[in-house]
Structures are given as structure tokens and as C-alpha cells.
Amino acid sequence: MSLQSLVFCPDEKIVRVLRRVLSDLEIAVERCSDADSAIRKLTRQRFEAVIVDCSDEQVASQVLKSARSAPCNKHAVAVAIVDGTTKLRSAFDLGAHFVLYKPISSERAKASFRAVRAMMKRERRRNIRVAIEIPVTLTIKDGAGQQRAVTSDLGEGGIAIQSSQRPKKMGPMSIQFTLPGTSHVVKCMGEVAWENAGRQTGIRFADMSPETRDRLKAWITNHSPES
């Protein structure tokens, strides 16, 4: 599955250059020529990169803020396309990670997007979820005691659990489970990220040791559908 980018740019010439460069780097392009359609897509579809023409800084700011406020795209790599009148500081204030200056040439764009692609791949890996059912022990820190649950999926940033009982207003908690096929026990803190009516709860990892994080990353990489 190729990396996904959203391009908000009304300039057809720039879009043609970007399509050619991004295609060579195996990055798919979803092009939007108006802010409303870009914002709608950002709320409904995941992208590893959001590329925004900042000719109109106010409109560009709306699009980039929408990306940051959308749960599925808040960590997407943001690329600002600017002209000579836009100060570099202004582009980064808008939330850009990378800046491309007009006129856009294929050579300069390709050099920049190689670096962008590396960040996009990290973002894709961070969002990979491995569907797996393993037992997990949660120790709630507010005195609610221990609770056992079963995971429905596992990722670098957290787990989704299925519990026979709705979690009791979970605050900070400690998490413990064993990576399948290994003797590595994952222990870290966690916090509730979301809940749904089907008794599923998403838990975000926190305060994980570097060694444990490296082991988890390696396990996810080896067991992901894209490996």
C-alpha cells in the first residue's frame, strides 16, 4: 500500500510537478483545489503528508489547523509551498515541517520529498495496527484495582482492548502483557484515548522505556500486514 498525500494547491503547473515527483517516490496524491474539500477529506481519510500552497496564508492556516485537529491526521507531515513574500518563520508558525519555495522544480522537489518520505514512512509505521488477541493486565491507579482484558489490536502507540465490563472511569494505569512468541514482558503506563459502545477501549502508551519501545517496534514491524 503506497504512502498517501493530500495536496491543496490551485496552481495546475505546481500540481503537475508534484504528481510526477511523488509518483516516482511511490507516494499517492489526493488533490484538492479548494479549502472546503481539503478539510472534509482531512476529517475522513488518513494521510501521511499534507502539502499546502500558502499563497493565501489565512486559508492555508485553516487547512493545516484542520489536519492537526483531525485525530487521523494530527501527526501527518505538513509541507508548505511558499513564495518569496512569505517569511520562513511564518511557514513554520502555520505548522509546517518542511517548506518548498516557488518556483517549484522537479530536482529541488525530489530532493526535499526524499526527506519528507522518510518521515511519512515513520508516520505510517506508527499507525500500523496488528490485529491480535492477547491477555493484558491493567492496574488502575485511582484505587479501582486490577482488571484483566483481551486486546483486539496492538500498535506502537497503544492497544485496543475488549473487556467484559465497561472500564470504571479509568485514570492513569499501568499496563502489562507479553509480546506473543517472545518472553518479553511489556510494562508501561497508559491512559484512555477512546471508548465505544461495544465495550472496546483504546489505551495510549506512556512512559515506556526505550528498550521496551524498541522491542515493541521490532515486533510490530515483523508482524504487520505490510512486512
What does this structure look like?
The chain has two domains: 3-127, Rossmann fold; 130-223, Thrombin, subunit H, CATH 2.40.10.220. It is built from six helices and twelve strands. It is α/β, with parallel strands linked by helices. The longest helix is centred in the middle third of the chain and has 22 residues, at 106-127. The chain has a six-stranded antiparallel β-barrel. Helix 1 (12-24) crosses helix 5 and helix 2 (35-44) packs parallel to helix 3.
Q: Work out the radius of gyration.
A: 20 Å
Q: Which percent range fits the helix content?
A: 25-40%
Number of strands: 12
Distance between the termini: 11 Å
User: At the third CATH level, what is the topology name of the largest domain?
Assistant: Rossmann fold
CATH superfamily of the largest domain: Response regulator
Any guess at the CATH architecture of the largest domain?
3-Layer(aba) Sandwich
Main CATH class of the largest domain: Alpha Beta
Principal-axes shape call: elongated
Strand content: 25-35%
Please tell me the total number of domains: 2
The secondary-structure class comes to alpha/beta
Tally of contiguous helical segments: 6
Spans of at least 5 consecutive residues whose pLDDT stays below 50 are: none
Query: What order do the helices and strands follow?
Result: EHEHEHEHEHEEEEEEEH
Biggest sheet: strands side by side, in what order? 7-8-9-12-11-10
Q: What composes the largest sheet?
A: 6 strands, antiparallel, barrel
Mean pLDDT: 87
